[in-house]
Specification:
It contains 14 helices and 14 strands. With 455 residues, the chain is of the alpha/beta class. The strands form 4 sheets. It has a 6-stranded mixed sheet. Strand 13 and strand 14 form a beta hairpin. Helix 2 packs across helix 3, helix 11 packs across helix 12 and helix 13 packs across helix 14. The protein is globular, with a radius of gyration of 25 Å.
Amino acid sequence: MHPVRMRQKDMWSRTQFHSFFHAVPVRVFNVAEYRQRLCGGLKDAEWFDLSNQEALALRTQCNQAAIRDMELFLSECDNGVAILDSTNPTHQRRVNLKTAMHNIGAKVMFIEVYNEDEQFLASHYRSTVQYSADYAGLCDISSEMDFRKKVEKYRKFYEPVDHNGNHEDESKWTYMKCDHSKQHFVVHNVKGYLQQKVVNFIMNMRTTSHAFYLTRHGQSEYNDLGRIGGDSGLTVHGLRYAQKLAEFVDKNIVKDKDGNDVPARLWTSTMRRTRETSQFIKQTTIRIRSETDPALEIEWVQMRPRAWHHLDELFAGSCDGMTYEEIEEKFPEEWKRRNVDKLAYRYPRGESYLDVIARLEPIIIEMERHQEPLLIIGHQAVLRIIYAFYMGHSRSEAPHLSIPLNTVIQIAPGPVECKVTRTVLYSPLEGVSSDGQDEPGKLPICIVADDPPSH
């Protein structure tokens, strides 16, 4: 059995997921970072040998320092979640951790990640050394060899959680065992809402990342009139953008750099303007290998549109279809409240950003579950939230992020961070002054630049 450390991106996503969607204070305590601060950078594989008593004492010191910080964090945040990013390879070390957490009244859930797939492990090792601070500036080949030696050192004394009844007390613990390469999971003694949310999210994660493409619909008739919400169709400019988007899809999403077919997905909201923006995207049929049975070929419809109510724009309630000037004139107190706290403000009989965040949680689960490139044609408020989640922005920052019209935003999740590429597909020659959603007191901004705030 190969114990596998979760990649930093995976750990970051889990942290952001619970703090972003459930407002739970979450902090990661990475023991490797404590080691780097206490002992410096690169340590060769011999430093991780169990017989190296001096190194063992230092590693134990680092682990204890992380646990002390966890205790402090949890004592300050009664509803907090502390993630100890560490191997915890022996029963005794897990007992020490559980005892420390029990003393402060914290519940403990162990997550064990393992894998026997050599192809996956080779990719994981390369990814780890490429982004690890321990191997910064060193040769990739020698770094990978050293990392493999470290893993072998750990294997010699690694004790799987609750393995063959070797430690009877572990059979009463809460834990989850994960082998994503086989989609095999063991969930044991998991209780409570938050623990079940953790299990659900991990089970839907993939070991390989794929690109997400986010774009707003083309300019709508309500955009042109300066009205928010509604269910209007596209203007001439919106239709031209839709055609440009279809060309972009053909060249960049459904084909790889060598021109080979790549299975890809398309999601829209249920609203007219997003569906019209997708109308020129081709739905061709290709044949792909079955994920469960590689010997079997199945038909795949490229970019078959799937409409989600979850992706509908923030509903402005009594203000739907109005201009911002009309809202300020008719509902002056509402306008003031919105300007004070845009995240929590709820339109009369409508929604707030917090409401939209709640309904987008299943969308994030689905985005994590799939492995094909995904294009989402959506709305500014909805895409702000999705973008904020993947880019590590806070909930309070989400309502103010720039999601311009006529632009495709590509998010490529990586082991450490998400890479973002913005591509402007359409610049109207007539010089349309705005996307129709300027707020009073704001200078008009060209629709191909950062858009003015809306919703």
